[in-house]
Amino acid sequence: MSTPIQQLFDLSGRVALVTGGSRGLGLQIAEALGEAGAKIMLTSRKAADLEESAAHLAALGIDARWVAAAASQPEDVQRVVDATLQRLGLFSQAVARASMIARRHGRIINIASIAGLAGNPAAMETIAYNTSKGAVVNFTRALAAEWGEHGITVNAIAPGFFPTKMANGLIEMMGADKMAAAAPLRRLGDSDDLKGAAVLFASQAGKHITGQILPVDGGVSAVVGG
Fold it and tell me: Is a pLDDT exceeding 90 seen at residue 165?
């Protein structure tokens, strides 16, 4: 018997750890997962930004908490893990690993970029960024192959251009209208455009999808390669 579509996309009872979740695309994804029923744990470096973002989510009726941490510091990573495990009702990493494997369930969503799928126009000199996002693409595929036997899916969203704090400088330099005109849909991304992809990959609706890179870019990668 098939499952009703609303149930397939329902994240009630799940806990989502969203790194970089205090602003921009990370906050958009946190909002989507929370609206689908998940409890949210936000983490990024700046406590003030996290507090503001958690308040924003709470105003939407989303159960959100936060931990300020730097991913480059092992002790900070441990604090994030511990806080998230407590929200899951698990109190040690060993118990968590055993539980995830026994449940045969887990969802990992990486954020790549269309910059990791191909080269750039001449005006964009971002080789380090392209290289790092290309690494995310193949990391996603390799981890999906290794962890699939445990029922854990690993996918990546590859956004195109979205007006965010990180991208605004480049958009201003190149021209928003010019960049939008290069996309088949003739626009940049907005505050809703990552939500569907995130919930698909996080939910039972995406249980047979793993190792995939989904561009959300208005069609740019369809015409420039990727």
Answer: no
